């Protein structure tokens, strides 16, 4: 059995996009990431332009580690500016290669210049693992139940 590689847009297609403004305080990004259970958010300005990415790591290192208060620190001061992006039609192999080459865990997904979502390395690895089990799985010993579990397990 040979499964076609999914694109990043196929992985994130059912998910709602959450984002923040560069003028929001870091505390707002923390609240959104906590409530939505995500590790990073695209930072989009008033014109709808992607200007950065803010991650939990950015806040810990640049805000808290820099003895800045999250309630008084604008996201623009602690975000990663000019982020590397994935195109919506990139395969998951392209996405993981970009992430590994640039030592990043989250990629904004862009289609026709518009951010349509974010994909994480966890989602890509989960998809690749599921695909490997389906294609090469344990010498054909993987049961339907194991495959269903593998599809929903977060690494």
From TrEMBL:
Taxonomy of the source species: Bacteria, Pseudomonadati, Pseudomonadota, Alphaproteobacteria, Rhodobacterales
Keyword set includes Oxidoreductase: yes
Keywords assigned: CBS domain, Oxidoreductase
Organism whose genome encodes this protein: Thalassovita mediterranea
Residues annotated as domain CBS: 12-70, 79-135
Catalytic class of the enzyme: oxidoreductase
Domain of life: Bacteria
EC nos: 1.1.1.205
GO molecular function: IMP dehydrogenase activity
Name of this protein: Inosine-5'-monophosphate dehydrogenase
Keyword Oxidoreductase: yes
